[in-house]
Amino acid sequence: MSEIAAAAASWVARLRALTPARVGLGRTGVSQRTSDLLQFQRAHAQARDAVHARLETAALSAAIGAISGDDVMRLNSMAADRRVYLQRPDLGRRLDERSAAALADLQIGRCDLSLIVADGLSALAVERHATPLLESLLPWLEGWRLAPICIVEQGRVAIGDEIGAALGAQLCVVLIGERPGLSSPDSLGAYVTWEPRPGRMDAERNCISNIRSEGLGYAEAAAQLVFYLSEARRRKLTGIALKEESHLIEEG
Amino acid sequence: MHGDSNVSFCGASRFGYAKSTPMAFASTIGNTRYTFESLRELLAKATPLRSGDVLAGVAAGSAEERVAAQFALADLPLVHFLSEQVIPYEQDEVTRLIVDTHNAGAFAPVRSLTVGELRDWLLSDDATPERLAELASGLTPEMAAAVSKLMRVQDLIAAAAKIRVVTRFRTTVGLAGRLSARLQPNHPTDDAMGIAASILDGLLLGSGDAVIGINPAGDNVVATTRLLRLIDALRQRFHIPVQSCVLAHITTQMAALEAGAPVDLIFQSIAGTEAANRSFGVSLSLLTEAHEAGKELRRGAHCADSIMGTNVMYFETGQGSALSANAHHGVDQQTLEARAYAVARHFDPMLVNTVVGFIGPEYLYDGKQIVRAGLEDHFCGKLLGLPMGCDVCYTNHAEADQDDMDTLLTLLGAAGVNYIMGVPGADDVMLNYQSTSFHDALYVRKVLGLRPAPEFEAWLAGDEFRRLRLEANHPEKLLPV
After folding, report:
1. How is domain A56-251 classified at the CATH fold level?
2. A150, A117 contact by CB (below 8 A)
3. A18, A27, A36 member nearest B194 (Cβ)
4. Which candidate among A3, A9, B308, B353 keeps its CA 20 to 30 Å from the CA of B43?
């Protein structure tokens, strides 16, 4: 390597150390170099595959059943496939007929909490992180009356409202694959909703996001969820009001 | 006449302002008679297919119904738009702004035309840049949207390319033969060094002449002020002809301004209905207040042509925002987008851009829909007199990729877009979407023979730029102490 090239490489390395952004990319003419081009294409390909991957519900329900020691419900939204799901968010928020009937047949009486796992926009995130997160969370929930854990294919966050209402749950938590970023195809989100029922607004939920290996860890995410769940039960609400108060608690 | 199509209007209409008189429209294709109950329905069904209109339940039910609506729309007199509003005057302050500020004198040259005849006129040699500039305040956004629905991609480019809208702050943006870039140095935690690294990278690659604009991860006065001071110190140290902006909520920027922060451009996302703007936490009166406060600072400079830069507002828009706020009133998303431009033009903005592919596939499904929407937005904005730029972008759940972005970028360059975005490697690591890169800006300038803003071009060729390049070897020393 020439002296100039070495100096340039060291400058790029210093710049790169300051930000995760793709700074310091070289040029050929005015265009990007082949190696940078292909690295971008690889990241995009991984994000695309994450969006279009189908959730392996059989394996996931076996894994979750093993840690919860209970049956797991496998449900579907009204969005029949990814193409419909991506264009019709309204259908991803509602259960199909079979799933709604299955919940109606359950007759478990009232319960404190319904835990729901939905593929959302990244089945990859759910497959990687939902089971270990539940493993961290469940020990905190002794004494809570839990509904059977539900796994939903082609689901959006608000499908938890219909499920929670059908199960007579006071609270629901939806663990869902977030929209894949170029460098984060497997980010999981968790949404907490007090008294779930169809028509709840996004402002009435609390959200923990970026649960993944390079982001928020399982133990920390579980602790934050338990905080929201306990506070929600005490204050009988979730959403903006709870979030503001939690900041006061964290900062005070 | 239009081949086998037979178009008719029924119902009375009076050409007074501020009336919303629904009236039925119809056209016949073959043996099928298609009727459209209102201007709102006619516009929606004449709109080229996009997922957001299907989601809203306002799209045409078939390809033939769509073209039937286009036939009916083509024969609709422009004056009809003055008597029927898509959202009632009484219910919506954006409608009131559109009606109350309509310039009848500027409208006079096209007053006798139909929508179809307006398309023909726009593409004719009679429509000179001067005449198009004079027409802007005579057109309502619904007229602009209507004519765009009858235009193909090449029409949207050909007409827009004739319209120059030039604005000034410390640089002059929108001149013929020029293309500027907003340097967008976002960082997931607003880390000052991280942002400085991206700014440095962008400046060295010739981006930033539209604005250095940061989307902050956190919306608060302290962070906003800190980031504004960072850019301002860099600007003064290297005498860079640029303007800065931190794209926090407008109330946050105003609070920073009152606390003495160096505020250049004031930003806000806006939409085409009062209710959607309310969901953004803004109103026309709040925007007016911010505009006045920004102008009073007089931070603009004498630009290359000695004219003082006084355009202080920066707006972003995008098709689908009203629907996503459940505030669309049954109006199609492209017409609502054009109504957002009526809001923007009231405040003489420095910059306006649609963030065309950001909102997701439920509004614009794939590359084809995004490309057309970007060109529609650019055309409608320019026709209405706005300094239009475009965030050429997509998310990972849209059916789009870098090839689609290259296509839209190149077409917008041909259409004379004022500016595009410059993001390191096209990958916004804070907002998690893909926009255009510093390299992309260099590409489109090179292939179309376009140059940066004159003040910035002179700076790139001067001693201060050389000094920045030398000192860039130690990026950590570029921060204000």
Report:
1. Rossmann fold (3.40.50)
2. yes
3. A18
4. B353
